[in-house]
Each structure stands twice: as C-alpha cells, then as structure tokens.
Amino acid sequence: MVTNAGPPPPSASFTGSPTSGTEPLLVTFTDTSTGTITSRFWDFGDATTTNVTTNSVSHTYAAGTNSVTLVVTGPGGVSTNLQLNYITVLTAFQSWQVQYFGSTTNPAAAQNIDPDGDGCNNLCEFLSGTDPTNNASSFHIIAVTPQSSDLLVTWATAGGRTNVVQVNTGDVDGSYTTNFIDLSPFIIIPGSGETTTNYLDNGGATNIPARYYRIRLAP
Fold first, then answer.
1. Which of 16, 128, 179, 218 is the most exposed place for a label (fewest CB within 10 A)?
2. Stretch 183-191: mean pLDDT, rounded?
3. Which residues partner with 215 through β-bridges?
C-alpha cells in the first residue's frame, strides 16, 4: 500500500535591509523561506501588517525599535519567524548625537547642554549645522562692514540651511529692544558643511539711530 504524506511544511525565514538608519527609513524585506508557499503575512512591528504572495516587500519606518514577524502558509502548513528588535530607526537628532557623541545617552549629548561652551546648546548646533565639540564652530554674525552708504552683514552658517537677516532700529541712547523684523528674503545656503555668507543692507549705513542685526534660522 502506498501512502501519500503530502508536501512538507514550509520553514519561515527572512532578511531585511537596511536594519538601522535615520527616519524615514525604507526597509526591503526578502522572504528566504523554504517549502511551497502560497501566502506571506508580514507584521512590521509598528502596528502595520500586510499579506502578499510575492517574496519581497518594502516598508517605511518612523523612529523606534521594531520586531518583525513573517508567517508563511502553503499546502504543507504554516510556519512563523519572529525576529525581535530587528529594525532600529533613529530620529535625525538622535543620529546627530551618535555622530558627535557616540550614543544618544551620553550626558554631553543632551539637547540643552553646551559641551563646547560657545553659547549654543546641542539643539541649537543641530539645527544650525555646526559642530558641538568645537567652540569655533557656531551660528553667529562675523562682521557688519560699511560699504559706502550700505552695510554688509557677514555670518557663519552651514550649507543646506535657510537663513533670514533680521533688523531692529536702535534707540538714540544706543540700546535696542528684541522686536526684530525680517529684513531679507529667505537665503538658501547651498551645499553642506560650515561656510560663511553675507547680505548687503542697501542704505543701512545712513540709518539713524543705528541698526542692530541678527540672523534667524528659517524652517
């Protein structure tokens, strides 16, 4: 007598790439399961699931640590593969902390700390694109230089940022308030890394009382 035992059960396995990075992180999962498979159920660990027949699927993650589960089904049965804490995604600020301080938990990496003592805390350095470990690297005005009847405002900044020059007319006694207003349009700083740029305030040298300047980091 011949007995047909049926097809063997599948064995679920998978890989993902990349398994870490900065949000939004696009991860491609590949089913490496063995056996005859007719459907694949994915649980990406962030309250998102999908059921597909193809052996590859992509998913975009926000910041967090996620376990991933693959359940494969075929004529021989069902198999499950769970990989705990498989995908680790950092926020842009967390990635910056790791870059400069080696981890997100280093006390010197806290956002309200100013480890290089330049008057700009870590959150300020992150937003402005400067180096938090070098007190010569900061977002600041370098000079205000007369050019005939104009004033040239020069400042240190970083590529990939958008800056706006602001102005406040001083009082006759030489003091000023914090009521600055935008003087320039959005100035998009090209490239990346630290750099300097400037803006010419036409007629600025003729203003009485004198003007006070500051640079605003635009979103």
1. 179
2. 96
3. 165
Residue 126 phi/psi, 5-degree rounding, is: -60, -50
Tell me which amino acid residue 23 is. Answer: E
- Distance of alpha carbon 10 from alpha carbon 181, whole angstroms: 67
Token digits of residue 48: 């998102």
Please give the full DSSP string across 114-126, using - where no structure is assigned: -TT-SS--HHHHH
User: Quick check: 122 and 116 in contact, CB under 8 A?
Assistant: no
Q: Distances from the Cα of 81 to the Cαs of 4, 47, 75, in angstroms?
A: 28, 17, 18
Q: Which residues pair with 60 in a beta bridge?
A: 26
Residue 127: both structure tokens together: 């937003």
pLDDT (mean) for 63-80: 97
Residue 186: band (very low, low, confident or very high) from pLDDT cuts 50, 70, 90: very high
Preceding amide of 7 cis, omega within 30: no
137-163: burial string, b at 16+ Cβ within 10 Å, e else: bbbeeeebeeeeeebebebbbbeebeb
The answer to whether 219 touches 181, Cβ cutoff 8 Å, is: no
Q: d(Cα 43, Cα 67) in Å, to the nearest integer? A: 8
User: Are residues 183 and 165 in contact, defined by beta-carbon separation less than 8 angstroms?
Assistant: yes
Q: What is the mean pLDDT of residues 125-130?
A: 95
Whole-angstrom Cα distance, residue 176 to residue 168?
Answer: 7
Question: Hey, what are 111's tokens?
Answer: 């956002």
Question: Cα(107)–Cα(105) distance, rounded to whole angstroms?
Answer: 6
